[in-house]
Amino acid sequence: MLYQKDYTFYTYINDVKGKFEARTGSWVGPFSVLYIDNPVLAGYSFSSSGLRKTQKEYGQDLYEFVQQFYNLFPHLLAIDLYIGGQSYAGKYVPVLAHWIHSSRQNAPTRIPLRGLYIGGPLFAPAVMFPENFEHLYNVGAISEHQRTTGRKQTQDLVDRYLTGELDPADTIRQILPLIFGTQVPSYENYVTGENVDGERFTAIMTSDRLRKALHVGSLDYVAINNTFFFQLYSDIMSDTRDKLSELLDAGEYKVLIYSGDVDVMVSVAMVEAALLATPWSGRGAYENSTRRPWYGPPSPTSNRRPLYGYYSKTSQLCRVVVRGAGHQTPHDQPAISREMMLQFVHDDCVGTMAT
Q1: How many CB atoms lie within 10 A of CB 68?
Q2: Is 60 exceeded by the pLDDT of residue 33?
Q3: Is 123 in contact with 94 (CB distance < 8 Å)?
Q4: DSSP one-letter code for 78
Q5: In which element (H, E) is residue 310 found?
Q6: Closest CA to 259 of 188, 195, 194, 313
Q7: Angle at 14 between CA 8 and CA 19, to 5 degrees
Q8: How far apart, in whole angstroms, are the C-alpha atoms of residue 345 and residue 194?
Q9: Which residues contact 126 (CB under 8 A, 6 or more apart)?
């Protein structure tokens, strides 16, 4: 599975043949993949008309891009489209999918959206941030005092934001030191302590071969734009649960939300809190669902099947927790992530059981 850092937005196009042959004659993947550098000023993306810092702004830009893409390549309209991403794409994926969904309600569109998937998604910060301390407490990184104190301080800031006492940017400036103030090996992977930085991607993406293939000329490549990150503060507290719930209730789209079990940045507890607070018709069934183990096939030398993780299937929602993965799940467990995507696309979820 192809993979890139948080601030890259992904669109997966499922190849109806399951795979395609590259010019070299080698077989490449089961998917055709289109990467969109988003927000503007990340990766190779640039703009002459200013930054896009609201859901309306970047949603419209992404939707217009998708329309232009299909105008250029209309033969791809025959192929199912899956929109997905990682982390902050918990904003971008539901927003773009909702734009496409809304356009279907208001006017005919041929965009073949079939599903969406998000890994370690930040899509309801006001609900999720106070839960940050639960995972840290459960792994023994903080004490009961630190858990209750940190949670209360964060919840107080969230409440002040919700009542309008604090604006979004001020809220984030005060919350980030609280939720990232614990000395853990890595917020991306609590066990390995590894942080997936942009250096390795920069070396690849700025190579002469890639520059030529991407037709980027002399444009600068920015794996992580810290300057823009601070300008994004006003959007961080924005919520996409309303869009996600409408997409789930539409009954037209498959939805995969996955997490790594050793992710501290957007932990399983944080994602669960947001899902349980998402107002869709299947929320009650999801709350009462039973999570089941997801096993891989036995190895050639053993009948023991490896435990890939845990999952539940509730209506259109496939919820997966990947074992041994942190915030960058495809990086930490590439083979399992690839299998997860294959099963989601072909079978609607991993495993075979539904709740």
Answers
A1: 10
A2: yes
A3: yes
A4: G
A5: strand 307-314
A6: 188
A7: 110
A8: 30
A9: 158, 161, 162, 237, 239
Amino acid at residue number 234: S
Provide the residue type at 205 as one letter. M
Please list, in sequence order, all residues whose beta carbon lies within 8 angstroms of the beta carbon of residue 103, skipping any fewer than 6 positions away: 63, 109, 111
User: Distance between CA 127 and CA 237 in Å, rounded?
Assistant: 10
CA angle 215, 32, 94 (to 5 degrees): 95
In this structure, whether the domain defined by 8-123+196-347 belongs to CATH 3.30.365.10 is answered with no
DSSP state of 14: E
How do the domains of the chain map onto residue ranges?
8-123+196-347
Which pTM was predicted? 0.88
How far apart are the C-alpha atoms of 50 and 39, rounded to whole Å? 11
Q: What is the pLDDT of residues 197-224, one digit of tens each?
A: 777 778 888 899 989 988 888 888 888 7
More confident of the two residues 29 and 301? 301
Strand 8-14 relative to strand 31-37: parallel, antiparallel, unpaired?
A: antiparallel
Handedness of CA 132, 185, 337, 79 (dihedral sign): positive
Q: Rounded CA gap, 256 and 69, in Å?
A: 24
| Buried residues in 136-170 as b, exposed as e (16+ CB within 10 A) | bbeeebbeeeebeebbebbeebbeebeeeebeebe
pLDDT, tens digit, 9 for 90 and up, residues 109-139 = 789 999 999 999 999 999 999 999 999 999 8
> Cα 141 to the chain's mean position, in Å?
25
| Among 108, 120, 17, 146, CA closest to 333 | 120
- Angle, alpha carbons 248-254-260 (nearest 5°): 95
